[in-house]
Write the C-alpha cells for this entry.
Amino acid sequence: MISQALILQDNSILMVKQYVQRGDVVWNYPGGGIEEGETPEQACIREVKEETGYDVVIKKLLFEKSDKYTFIAEITGGKLYLDSTHVANSDIIDVAWISRDEQRIFDNITAPLLKLLID
C-alpha cells in the first residue's frame, strides 16, 4: 500500500524526482509505503517529512485506488531538504517545487491527480 501527498503552494506543486521500478526517472508526488501499524494518513505525513523535510497536516483524501492513497496536505513547518543519507531516499535524485504550467513534467500518473486537485 502506498500513501502520497499533493502539496500546492502558489502555482507550484511539491515533487520528488526518483528512479522507479521500471528503471525510468520520473517526477512523482512525495510518498511511499505504508508500514505495519500505520494509517495511510500517518504514512503520508512520515513519507513527506523523510523525502522533503517538510512537516505537513492532511487536509483531505483526494483519491484512493488499488491500495494507493492520495491526500491533499498543507505544510506546517520544516524546510525543503533532501536527506540523501536516509536509506529510504536512495531512489530520490531531487526534490523541488514544480510549476503547474510545466506540462512536460507531469505524466499519465501524476497529471490526472493534479487535474483533480485544481478543478
